[in-house]
TrEMBL record:
Record-given protein name: Phosphopantetheine adenylyltransferase
Site description Transition state stabilizer, residues in chain: 5
Gene3D superfamilies cross-referenced by the UniProt entry: HUPs (3.40.50.620)
InterPro entries: Cyt_trans-like, PPAT, Rossmann-like_a/b/a_fold
TM region positions: none
Residue sites binding substrate per the record: 29, 61, 75
Family annotation (Pfam families): CTP_transf_like
List of residues binding ATP: 5, 76-78, 86, 110-116
Main location: cytoplasm
Entries under PANTHER family matching the protein: PHOSPHOPANTETHEINE ADENYLYLTRANSFERASE
Organism: Actinomadura algeriensis
Length: 148
């Protein structure tokens, strides 16, 4: 969870009555944090938004959206290079489930941020303060120290 993610969540929460941040349970992916840990971090940094809910799911995002009566997926775009992939996904989601996608341009202040970049910087001793929420920063630094 970077400040770029949090910015998109914040902006979406001003547009919609409820925003669900759905965390994918991907058994094939080895993540630095478990699904529960990721959901806890997101819950912690979004607790001041009265209309943001964090949930976990397995499978296709559109199936989850259908089950939860969620009509729109909000996606942040950092660069033009994100658009082609995101557009294809949005078109597929609409075709198979009628789910709309709202593309939100990332705040230029956060356009260069990615979770993998943040992990790499911390791994090599760099400072990412101000680029991720403080609680995420602390957990990330601690976890990378543990795993070496």
């Amino acid at each position: 969870m970077t400040n770029g993610h949090l910015d998109i969540i914040s902006r979406a929460s001003s547009l919609y009555d409820e925003v669900v941040v759905a965390v994918l349970i991907n058994k094939n992916k080895k993540s630095l944090f478990t699904v529960d840990e990721r959901a806890d971090m997101i819950s912690e940094v979004t607790k001041d938004y009265g209309n943001v809910r964090v949930d976990k799911f397995y499978g296709l995002t559109v199936d989850y959206c259908r089950e939860q009566n969620i009509p729109v997926i909000v996606r942040g775009l950092r660069a033009v290079s994100d658009y082609e992939y995101e557009l294809q996904m949005a078109q597929m989601n609409h075709r198979i489930a009628g789910i709309e996608t709202l593309f939100m341009a990332t705040n230029p202040e956060y356009a260069f941020l990615s979770s993998s970049l943040m992990k790499e910087v911390v791994k090599f001793g760099g400072d990412i303060s101000g680029l991720v929420p403080d609680s995420v920063h602390d957990r990330l630094v601690e976890r990378l120290r543990e795993t070496g």
